[in-house]
Specification:
Elements lengths: L15 E10 L2 E9 L8 H14 L2 H5 L2 E11 L3 E10 L3 E10 L7 E2 L10 H17 L5 H6 L5 E2 L1
Length: about 160
């Protein structure tokens, strides 16, 4: 149900963002970001491995539409109530496509593909905004280099 009362919405609080190493899988190059609601929690290697395994199983998806560049970025967002995994890739010059999955706080390594209409939350949009700028500045203008694009990462910090 729609609401016209913004005072009932939660109050935004910054979250911890970490850029992990670029991840190569076959022909694919992906940046990997970690967002955490708990500013003291480090990235979890088991969850990272499960996230990569889920994305690895999705690497065929971009081939359905074609015209992609084997470049993208993964966001794992460990939230307060559940976790989100968003894999975005660049296609058709200036478009991102995505696969979205989630997992519970109780079983964070068991990802299930999400088929609803959700695109991203306010924190994930920080990365989307950064990646859009990096794509425009490094691939669609300037030196027009995939390598330069892949070398630019959102600085670690609270956003």
């Amino acid at each position: 149900m729609a609401s016209n009362d913004a005072s009932s919405l939660f109050t935004y609080a910054k979250r911890k963002f970490i850029s992990l190493d670029n991840w190569q899988e076959g022909a694919w190059s992906n940046k990997f970001y970690w967002i955490n609601a708990d500013p003291t929690a480090p990235p979890d290697a088991e969850i990272e491995a499960a996230a990569k395994a889920f994305v690895r199983d999705q690497l065929h998806v971009p081939d359905r539409e074609g015209h992609h560049y084997n470049r993208g970025f993964v966001m794992f967002h460990q939230g307060a109530r559940q976790n989100w995994l968003v894999w975005n890739w660049w296609a058709f010059d200036n478009i991102t496509s995505h696969v979205l999955a989630n997992s519970t706080a109780e079983d964070p390594t068991s990802f299930t593909e999400y088929s609803g209409t959700i695109m991203a939350c306010t924190w994930e949009m920080v990365i989307l905004e950064f990646e859009r700028r990096a794509w425009v500045e490094n691939v669609l203008s300037g030196e027009r280099s995939f390598d330069l694009y892949m070398s630019e990462h959102l600085p670690d910090g609270a956003y």
